[in-house]
Fold this protein.
Amino acid sequence: MIKFDRFTLSNGLTVIVHEDNSSPLVAMNILYKVGARDEDESKTGFAHLFEHLMFGGSINIPSYDEPLQMAGGENNAFTNNDITNYYLTIPSQNLETAFWLESDRMLSLAFTEKSLEVQRNVVVEEFKQRYLNQPYGDVWLALRPLAYKVHPYKWATIGKEIAHIEDATLEDVKSFFKKWYAPNNAILTLAGNCSLDTAKELCKKWFEPIPVSNTPIRNLPVEPKQTKLQTIEINKAVPNSNIYMVWHCCSRLDPEFYATDLLSDVLSRGKSSRFYQRLVKELKLFTDISAYMLGDLNKSLFMIEGKIINGISMEVAEKAILNELENSKIYISEEELQKVKNKVESSLVFSEMSLDSKALNLAYYELIGDANLVNEQIAKYQSINTEEIMAIAKEIFQPENCSILYYNSIK
Amino acid sequence: MLNRTESPKLIPTTDIKIPEAKVLYINDQIPVIVVNEGTQEVMKVELVFAAGNISEKIPMLASVASELLDEGTRKRSSADIAEALDNYGAYFQTECGNDFATVSLYTLSRFLPETLPVLLEIITEPAYPENEISTFCVQGKQRLAVSSEKVDFLARKHFINSLYGDQHPYGHFPKEENFDVFTPEILSAFHKKNYLNGLVTIVIAGKFNETQLKLAIEQIKSIGFKKGIVDNLNISATPEVVKLHVPKESAVQSAIRIGRKLFNRKHPDYFNFTILNTVLGGYFGSRLMSNIREDKGYTYGIGSGIIPQFFDGYFFISTEVGSDVCESAVKEIHYELNRLVNDPIPQEELNLVKSYLTGSFQRSIDGPFSLADRYKTLVLNGLELEHYYSYLNTLRNVTSEDLLQTGRHYLNIIHMSEVIIGR
């Protein structure tokens, strides 16, 4: 149970405070409601490039990192298709420094050519390091445009292609900031050694003067229903062949989320799961195989990725997976369900061990409706029965709902 | 009017108080570290054995023995073991390092009575079944083939090899043929010597009640483990200073590793070097990051570190950079090393690093698992709590002049090996 208080500033910034005096530290998390899905198709990779620029100095403070480190703090950030999230931890006596830094970059950035040029290069190197220079690193670059035809989830957070990042101009960057970086489009959470009164006082002082902005109303195209099986192949000199199968499924906001998540757990969570026992251990077809849902805020994907043992054909591997999926439509035992529920409970409890993850969780649940959902997750999973899970399996595991990437190893 | 240009007044952290852990002793003076705090009712029970790579006579023996612990016991198949734990949402973690191997159980505290016996069963009675060995080896070879396509993996391998040579267990890197030699007998013999007779310490951390703690201690006690010590090395390392460029035509980035053999936590220069390393490449604002990423944009990330081990340690710089700028990146790395050999660190920069490291230390003792790890490090290396206070003291008092001496001693490029994998 995470206790918290919530208030909203006059400029629309939502603030959530979880006081925990057992630690000398405070975690601050600022979630901006903007991600890769909000990009223009001809300028992808922008939300993420922007995350980098947020460290290149703000309107009144030339460096973000230096003063934070001087205060004993540490920070990082991540971007995905839906959100951009910044977080830091700092000794509580210097908490005001965090307010000073974060409020200034919410107010405005320095926007220097130098910072843009360097971060373009850094992100291009990140693109190479994570997507091009790793075996199988380009999987999502190929799968997304196969599965999505119109929705912006068809490009990866890093961007559709390197050129989009290379071509970003200062004007593009400024207008992106103006559009999305505003108090009324953010959620600030504090967890740790900080009282509600302190939080209110500091928020009023540093964040309340930031003006409201006209954040656009999101109007994303709806992905039309897929009507037939889609496949593509990549042939590359990789050590072994892999198979990637995705199905359209519900979003994080839909009530079916919990049953769908449990379905992926029945299939592949832990060494006693169906996939591991049957496909890895018994039939010895894969070195590893996993199933998971992406849990995006719009209609999302259910992914299965299997690393095939050399000598096993793609057809045999695919058939074995499909066979397990058929089984999940007709039989899930009560014991199996109880087992995955216990696993979910345990991982939720473990995920709340650190201040920064508590701060992030509170912000994320507030984004999807109410911070208090953080305390209701276990009950929501507990309420699901086997029938509901099998119904989800029947609904999503249909050939016309599926896209497959065959990643063939050629010598 | 709010002044946004000036930082709020900073208050330095003074007097860090490291929360006390309880240390008990069982069976012939085997220490049990107990840290009971935090907000979540979960537990970690970790057993540390003198069963790391250093104890192996055959390459990879230690890691295979560790990875196959939960793949079947005399009483249960690997599937039954997995089921027994998954039913309670608990999980194991086995880790095999250069000096020690650890087996940890993570469980909701209320399920300890059900999950702890499974942990102890896999530790004490692994069967190392023939079929599980062969499955593991097929998978292991294939995973190795994937790793061998990655430039950073190859750079690490060649670099470590230059420090220790082929014969030394710290220098063992898996080769495909290594997988073919394992039998149940070889693994069981290693297990008996290094696990049953090799327990070094036990860590119990999290939030739990007296009954749960007593249960854990009594059950572990009843096994009758013998105390282990890390074997004295009878193989000497054969360090060589190499300049190596291994071509990999398909790579769009090159991996760079530069470094040298060094010392461990017990060396009088360890603290100074740790601070110096932070200046060079140990945090986001470090000189390597500021120059090579934030000024030149050659890389997504670059860092340096010191790896302290039981018998010695080593220092390394690592990065992956665009193939076209590899040469320039190496030049800048040399430039940054030379600066620390020739010029004192400006006072302001040193103060920043000191503040950063003080905050870092605070974070490293926050929460029961992190705090328990700090105590584990002490126990495993035969150090006292004083070690950390002495570090914090060094952090307060060290001067730029002291660090210049440290730099002169240890950061000279002529002592560094240099490995580049890429075009």
